[in-house]
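Researcher: Good morning. I'm working through a list of sequences from a screen, and I'd like to move beyond sequence-only analysis. For each chain I'm collecting a predicted structure so we can compare shapes side by side. This is the next one on the list. No need for commentary yet; just the structure.
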Amino acid sequence: MRFANVNGRSALITDGGALDVEKASNGRFSSDPAKIFLAWEEFRQWAGAATGDPISFDIADLRSPSPEPTQIFAIGLNYLDHAMEAGVKEEPLTPAVFTKFRSCLSGPEPYLKLPSANVDWEVELVAVIGKPAHAVSIENGLDHVAGLAVGQDYSERLVQLEGAMPQFSFGKSFPGFGPIGPWLVSLDEFSNPNDLAISCTLNGETMQSSRTSKLIFSLPELINRLSHVCALQPGDIIFTGTPSGVGGARDPKIFLRPGDEIISRIEGIGEIRQICR
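Model: Good morning. Structure tokens for this chain:
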């Protein structure tokens, strides 16, 4: 199942286009994508047999699949090669957790307004929570996931790193710095949701290429650790971390410029694309 936010309305993506959820369900499920996660299991069962007349849509019509999360979690240094390029000499023993503020969320193909000449890219696998999770075991972690999407954790490196203490959340929350999409793919669509190819290109050149099986802390383990501190709510978002190849770790450093095109891809999900201006 592919669940999408099409111009602010809940939709199922089919081979023929977008099926409006409220219309196809005769009002049983809301047109508001944020409300779908409150009844995700019931919705998922209905969606498996949903029928109707899909309509065509443009990628530009897509918005964030989860537009109003209660919480956004982001994980730093969660691929060993990225941790090493960031100067960390040993594999982290615990996840580095921060947040991205909700105002940074966007759909999969907006223009990205650059606030400075210090903006970097970080392709990430994003998970959206589908049912409440508190003190969840690793073995049951994926049971609480509604689906997976492609995300970018854009980062203004000067703001992120200036001062005596790093400002990760602040430097990663400018408008448009949290694009997610193009849709949310349910876990039953993957043969192995813990091992997906992930990549990012800049103007056609591959900058990042890895597999999510190389995460230091897998998605089930992240849910286990996060849920032992915070009660995870339906619609909550987890950015799971980025592999090596970010611009700020290169010599010389590479940051985004107006006109640059960034395409982020994950196997079995699709791609999101931003043009800088």
